[in-house]
Specification:
There is one protein chain. By secondary structure, the protein is an all-alpha fold. It is built from 10 helices and no strands. It has helices at residues 7-16, 19-34, 41-48, 52-58, 62-85, 91-107, 118-124, 131-154, 159-183, 187-202.
Length: 203
């Protein structure tokens, strides 16, 4: 007998997951593929297979669900990055692994194709001063700090050079991510990774 699970069995397993998890997974798929603004609560509850009351029992509002989506997406990236580099990465490898983790996402996108960084896409829909933009900014700053920590370890005693190099790499990463999202693949990210590697070698 094959170990392959039939669609009905998979659907049943999905329904057994906690409602909050199903709602968040459904929202993540729709927010990423169709946008935050274009995705309504009815669409999310229908895809998650829950009543609207169940959504509001888990999230106080759509805005609360969006906040959870942004946190969940960032945490997922951090987990994948840590799995890739291990507990004590070589500083140079640690920087390049940031690019590799983004490339992984471009190479294995969710159903519907690669649309770039879900955090930046969501922030682009929000007006200036929106709390969600501040949330995404904080998440991006965390990634930049990770890069800076690795570069500082790579260039001991040279804090100014380390700071400038880390900033260049962070800007290179984000610019490449935007272009990759527009083009629908990881080609620009791979080019940016090679540029970052040359920056590190020169430093």
């Amino acid at each position: 007998m094959s170990g392959r699970r039939e669609p009905a069995e998979l659907a049943g397993a999905g329904r057994r997951r906690p409602a909050r998890e199903r709602i968040l997974r459904a929202a993540a798929r729709r927010f990423y593929q169709e946008g935050v603004t274009a995705t309504g609560i009815d669409t999310i509850t229908a895809e998650a297979g829950v009543a609207k009351m169940s959504l509001y029992n888990n999230f106080s509002s759509k805005a609360d669900l969006v906040r959870a989506y942004l946190d969940d997406r960032h945490e997922d990236w951090l987990v994948r990055y840590r799995e890739r580099v291990g507990p004590e990465p070589d500083p140079r490898d640690g920087v390049l692994a940031v690019f590799d983790t983004y490339i992984d996402g471009a190479d294995c996108p969710p159903t519907g194709g690669f649309r770039g960084c879900g955090l930046l896409n969501a922030a682009a829909e929000m007006p200036a001063g929106h709390e969600g933009r501040a949330q995404v900014r904080g998440q991006k700053e965390e990634v930049e700090r990770m890069i800076a920590d690795h570069v500082t370890a790579l260039l001991p005693g040279r804090p100014d050079t380390a700071r400038a190099t880390a900033r260049q790499i962070a800007f290179l990463l984000e610019g490449a991510m935007v272009r990759s999202g527009l083009e629908g693949d990881g080609h620009c990210l791979r080019n940016a990774r090679a540029m970052a590697e040359r920056l590190l070698d020169r430093a």
